[in-house]
Every structure is written in structure tokens, then in C-alpha cells.
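Hi, here's the filled form for the chain we discussed.

Project: internal
Contact: R.S.
Residues: 63
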Amino acid sequence: MHNNLLGRVLMGLAACAVAFFVILGVVAVLPRALTDALPDNVLGGAAVVLAVAAARRFARRAR
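And the returned structure, exactly as it came back:
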């Protein structure tokens, strides 16, 4: 399953979902003043970077 396109797409979606929940958990732990001071772009960018890193790790492991 890891060699076909559908498998790669599913792994990418799973990586994005994991990144979303990790960022959501981190934001929940941060103090309210800090989350208000951070722009939304910072949190979104962190989720994208984490998802790309996880997807690259899964892609290397599958080969």
C-alpha cells in the first residue's frame, strides 16, 4: 500500500492530522496571554512544518 499514490496520500493526511492535534494540544497548554500575543500565522506555520516533517519521515520509512 505504501508504494501507490493512495497510500502516500493517506500517509500525508495522517501526518497532517497528527500535526493538527499536536499543535492544538500545545496551544491548549500555553497561557492565555501568550496565545493572544501569537498571530494565527505562527500557529498555522508550525502545523505545516510539523506535518511536512512527519510526512517525510513516513515516506523514508516506507522505502
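Let me know if anything looks off before we file it.
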